[in-house]
Amino acid sequence: MADLNAIVEQLSALTVLEAAELSKLLEEKWGVSAAAAVAAAPAAGGAAGGAPAAEEQTEFDVILTGDGGKKINVIKEVRAITGLGLTEAKALVEGAPKAVKEGVNKDEAAKIKAQLEGAGATVDVK
How far apart are CA 89 and CA 28, in angstroms? Predict the structure, then answer.
């Protein structure tokens, strides 16, 4: 069996360009996509001094942080947004901070935030 520690040391010494070339060679040899390895290579290179590119967030969670003293209006908006029943929407609002919607795109998150803030709620988008 190969000396794994020696392999780790050799891979750690690679430049970003060498790591990308290695990824292509392994992809061709094994017939698999090495997208995760290519993404990890710039991060490892970033530790050596370069700045890795930040990924743009594509999914957002809309978190209700408070009802702003207008609980009834906020419950109505939560029901309209989520399709929950009265009891479930009331429990969500009273249990804040809670997620109203999870995994939505940026535009939908902004729209939901505007709706809830219009009803008097305080909202975070993460």
Answer: 53
Lowest mean pLDDT among 22-31, 46-55, 84-93: 46-55
pLDDT tens digits, one per residue of 70-105: 889 999 988 998 888 899 889 989 988 888 888 888
Secondary structure class of 7 (helix, strand, coil): helix
Q: Give phi and psi for 103, each to the nearest 5.
A: 70, 35
Instruction: Indicate the residue type of 57.
Output: Q
Q: Is the pTM of this model over 0.70?
A: no
The yes-or-no verdict on residue 50 having pLDDT over 50 is no
Please spell the DSSP secondary structure of 21-68, one letter per residue.
HHHHHHHHHHT---HHHHHHHHHHHHHTTPPPPPPPP--EEEEEEE-T
Q: Which domains does the chain have, with CATH numbers?
A: 4-36 (no CATH), 60-125 (3.30.1390.10)
Buried b (16+ CB within 10 A) or exposed e, 78-94: bbebeebeeeebbebbe
Place of tokens 């069996």: 1
- Residues 19/44, Cβ–Cβ less than 8 Å: yes
